[in-house]
Amino acid sequence: MRIIIETSWDVVYLCGYFSLVVYFQYAIFTTIMYTYMTKLNPSVGPTTFGLAVTFHGIGHCLGALAAAWWTNKRYKARKPLLAGYLLMLLSNCLFLLADHVPMELTAPFIMLCRFLGGLGMGTVVL
Question: Boundaries of each Major facilitator superfamily (MFS) profile domain copy (predicted)?
C-alpha cells in the first residue's frame, strides 16, 4: 500500500521566508560585529573576530543536530523551532548588553552570544 502525501507549498514558502530573514540577520551581524568589538575593546583583533564567527558556526552545527534529534524523537517540529527562535532572541538581547560588560570580557561575551545565536539558527533546517 502506497501513501501519497501532498506538499503544503504555503508552509514551504513560509519556511523559505523565515530562512531568508534569519540569514539576513546573520549577514548584518557579521558585517558590523568586528567594528563593534573593536569599539568595546580596542585590543580585539581579526583572530578574535574569527573565533566569534567560528563559535557561531559550531553552535549552528550543534543546534542542527539537536533539532534533528528532538524532531525525530517527537515527530513534531513546533517546539524545536520555538526553542530555536527563543535562543536567537536571547542571543540578540545579550548582544545588546555587551556595552555593560567589562572590557576584558567583551570578546568572550560576544562569542557566547554568537554561539547561542548559532544554536538557535540550527533549527532553520527543520
Answer: 11-126
